[in-house]
Amino acid sequence: MLVLGIESSCDETAAAVVEDGRFLRSNVISSQIDVHRKYGGVVPEIASRKHIEAIGPVILQALEDAKVTLDSIDGIAVTRGPGLVGSLLVGLSVAKAMAFAKGIPFVGVNHLEGHIAAIFLTEDPPDFPFISLVVSGGHTNIYLARGFQNFKVLGQTRDDAAGEAFDKAAKLLDIGYPGGVTIDRMARKGNPDWLRFPRALKNDLDFSFSGLKTSLVMNMKRREKPLDKSELHDLTASYQEAIVDVLVEKTLRAAEMCAVYRIVVCGGVAANSRLREKFFEAAAQKGVMLYFPPSVLCTDNAAMIAVVGEHFLTKGHKDALDLNAISKWPLDVVV
Ligand code: KG4
Ligand code: ZN
Prior knowledge:
By secondary structure, the protein is of the alpha/beta class. The chain folds into 2 domains: 134 residues, Nucleotidyltransferase, domain 5; 166 residues, Nucleotidyltransferase, domain 5, CATH 3.30.420. 44% of the residues lie in helices and 19% in strands.
């Protein structure tokens, strides 16, 4: 089965063609990062307008790269939520229009389920059940994944998402937008033990990153002179280390609590090199199997949406043309 995936939940307009829910035939991503940079964050109204401009060419490119036309597409999968409603509606409307015009079935997909399903595009994916850490700009959740549409939330953030903690720090330090990838790069040259940032490590599986951010603000205020380059590298490395430590510790704790020794780490922050390094070290020590999608499938893309779509379409499920977008849609709530 050939599924066309469409994703427009935030600031990436993406389309992809996936075969049998396993093989990537094309994966086109048009990022709006340059447009939002000067505002230091995603401006929803601008994001919607940019999706409208990009979506047609992105879909055509995905079909061309896969060397197919719409006539050979068996189903369309589109992100229905969670995300910015104005942005989601662009992808959803285009998917419905194509489905109606060509008589192709379409399904609306949960973006978070998509992030997890990205792992099925890798060569040797795990079987269910597994523990999944979804760590992105909007979410930091640990799930027990028992199957498609069968997720139990074990922990979640009480305030900022981990990606937000990266992005806000980068904004504060004025080192670039979006912050995660910049901090990842700078931290490679720094000493992670230079400064000990607080780690919220209570006994539960929830996360909290607001104290960490406040600690950075206080630290900056106390400084009498601006940081030089090497101090900035050390500071970003120390800050990143605090985020990474908590993510690794709590996810491994979840695996032990559930006695499920397979972990999938996904979402934009899963592209972080230090997170990968420390997760692999810790998992090896505990005898846990660890799975990361490649970086390009960790950040937002449409291939992961097509994988979930394939699952529903092969079961004969299709959505009606009056399907609406959902801005907040927890993964453990079936709608
Ligand atoms: O999954 P994603 O592309 O979009 C959402 O669904 O939110 O994640 C975006 C987030 C941003 O906060 C970005 O700073 C972070 O992922 N990110 C990273 C890295 N690459 C992207 N964070 C840390 N290290 C990275 N290499
Ligand atoms: Zn995402």
